[in-house]
Specification:
The complex is a heterodimer of chains A (394) and B (123).
Chain A (H helix, E strand, L loop, with lengths): L6 E8 L3 E2 L8 H15 L9 E4 L9 H9 L5 E3 L7 H14 L5 E8 L3 H10 L3 H6 L7 H17 L3 H17 L11 H6 L2 E4 L1 E2 L6 E12 H4 L7 E10 L19 H12 L8 E4 L4 H10 L8 H7 L15 H5 L1 E2 L3 H13 L13 E8 L4 E8 L4
Parallel strand pairs in A: 3-4, 3-5, 8-11, 10-12
Antiparallel strand pairs in A: 1-8, 1-9, 2-8, 5-8, 6-7, 9-13, 12-13
Helix pairs in contact in A: 7-11, 7-12, 11-12
Chain B lengths: L17 H8 L4 E5 L5 E2 L14 E5 L3 E10 L14 E8 L4 E5 L13 E3 L3
Antiparallel strand pairs in B: 1-2, 1-3, 4-5, 4-7, 5-6
The chains are: A alpha/beta (394), B mainly beta (123).
Chain lengths: 394, 123
């Protein structure tokens, strides 16, 4: 039984993203509770309608966060989960919630993530959140959090495919262009290719502007059955396909199985999502790709099938990726333009897809958008979840 | 070095990694090999990731490999004990025995490191 078209996003909410240093009195609770409140209101539901919850645990909280949130908000879910595989968790949460709704476990699932995140906290987390083998066979060599991991992928990519820095920089230019027009974005100033190349190198070959900025914020959305979505006040955004792939073999330090770190599990995840949806890449009116680093976007574009392996860098250079272009990419500015609130960022891309497909994207609206692809990436490209949405069921 | 305390992170010795670290102390790089299917294994495990056999043996690596990828770390804010080493190389080394490992490339100007460069293990 496929879950194609069985569920829909009917509402979403996002708190105002702010730089970590401006967090003031905000907390993990303000971000997740306020985002949840906005999403429930937007969906036209009452809190008592929520009978499922998946919350992303903030980095500085215990994994019991989800059940604590149930108590905090006095929710009464029949379905509860707490996913923890990095940036792929948000899309996976949507997929699992859809499976739960389709099988009759619950009706309206609240999906929420967000936190107060400052760079120091992220670093400290990076030091503590380490499993034995990572600590003993990786940390001892001095990695620089995710930056060095993605730098290894980018360096290898450049070597295999002769990609140019100017091409990667185009991803940032595009993100900042959209962010400059998006109300809830932190990095609103436009940048040129040269600005990206002039920004300092953190882990060669990754420049500062190619890295997301951790920030404070929260995002939530409501998934419901397609049946109930018919009466929704918003245009339902149907989940048409989903697929996941996890391949730790490609990443540190579990090497051996995967022949290359430049091909990602996005390939299998997207293949599965397209198969479920009966759609193909050329049917997509936009793509929202998890963009923690520029290399993530380039490899994801290849692995979802926009171009051949090794042509991604050239593709971003030659394609108009703006909301009015041939392939609109990260039309809200993505994380590279808006900032990365941990947990919230897991849902940002799906929310932007919903915004577009509900026709609420304002100036950044992709004309006549019907179908869109969203990819979530985590674990330095080892964890992938691809979703396909549409405002119609083909 | 007497008087110079090692400030960088140290591994925690576990039952399944003890042989590895004992060998490292003797300046030998040890790898595991599955007695059932022959799979070479790094990092040390209690079970073969290919066939799930727990019959694993140890052998000494020739210690030669190739730089598979690398990064020059210019800013190190996470692990303070490496801060004074920048710029330094953090790399994936593909050993001739077929496994990849994270390591540093040292005794060379970091800006001269290239993918495909031959390296050998030192301790």
């Amino acid at each position: 039984m496929s879950i194609k078209g069985k569920c829909a996003i009917i509402g979403y909410g996002e708190t105002e993203f702010v730089k970590s240093k401006n967090s003031g009195n905000r907390s993990n609770y303000t971000e997740q509770c306020n985002a949840a409140k906005l999403a429930i209101e937007d969906a036209g539901l009452d809190k008592s309608d929520i009978d499922g919850l998946i919350a992303i645990c903030p980095l500085d909280q215990k994994s019991s966060w989800t059940m604590d949130l149930v108590e905090y908000l006095q929710l009464y879910p029949k379905f509860l989960d707490n996913l923890y595989f990095g940036g792929a968790s948000g899309n996976a949460a949507i997929l699992y919630a859809a499976a739960a709704i389709s099988s009759g476990l619950c009706n309206n699932v609240l999906l929420v993530g967000g936190s107060v995140m400052d760079t120091k906290q992220a670093y400290e987390h990076g030091l503590e959140d380490t499993v034995d083998f990572e600590r003993d066979f990786d940390t001892i060599y001095g990695p620089m959090l995710d930056n060095s991991a993605y730098a290894l992928i980018k360096q290898r990519y450049k070597y295999e495919f002769n990609a140019k820095e100017e091409q990667f920089a185009r991803v940032v230019v595009n993100a900042r262009y959209h962010a400059s027009k998006f109300p809830n974005a932190l990095l609103k100033n436009l940048v040129a290719v040269k600005d990206v190349l002039d920004s300092r190198i953190i882990c060669d070959p990754i420049h500062l502007f190619e890295i997301v900025m951790p920030c404070t914020g929260g995002c939530a959305l409501i998934l419901t059955s397609a049946e109930m979505a018919k009466n929704s006040k918003n245009k339902p955004v149907y989940l048409l396909g989903g697929g996941q792939s996890f391949d730790r073999g490609m990443w540190t330090p579990v090497y051996g199985n995967n022949p290359s770190i430049t091909t990602s599990p996005v390939k299998l995840a997207a293949k599965q999502a397209f198969a479920m949806s009966d759609l193909k890449i050329t049917d997509m009116d936009f793509v929202q790709l998890y963009d923690c680093f520029t290399i993530t976007v380039v490899i994801s574009l290849e692995d979802i099938g926009c171009c051949e392996k090794g042509e991604g860098a050239e593709f971003v250079e030659k394609t108009d990726l703006t909301y009015k272009g041939a392939l609109p990419l990260n039309t809200d500015g993505g994380q590279l333009g808006r900032g990365q609130p941990y947990g919230g960022c897991h849902f940002m891309h799906a929310i932007e897809a919903a915004r577009q497909l509900m026709g609420r994207a304002g100036e950044l609206q992709v004309k006549e958008a019907k179908f869109g692809l969203v990819n979530g990436n985590g674990g330095s490209m080892a964890n992938q979840c691809t979703l396909i949405f549409g405002n119609d069921i083909p | 070095m007497p008087g110079n305390e090692y400030k960088k992170p140290l591994p925690k010795i576990l039952p399944e990694t003890e042989e590895y670290w004992k060998a490292a102390k003797r300046h030998e790089l040890f790898l595991q090999k599955c007695k059932n299917c022959g799979q070479v294994i790094y990092f040390p495990r209690i079970i073969c990731f290919k066939c799930l056999s727990d019959e694993l043996g140890w052998f000494k690596s020739k210690g030669h490999g190739t730089v598979y990828s690398y990064t020059i770390i210019h800013y190190q804010i996470a692990h303070k004990s490496f801060e004074s080493d920048v710029p330094y190389i953090y790399a994936i080394i593909e050993l001739d025995e077929g496994v990849r490992m994270i390591s540093n490339v040292i005794n060379i100007d970091p800006f001269k490191v290239k993918i495909g460069m031959r390296v050998k293990v030192i301790f």
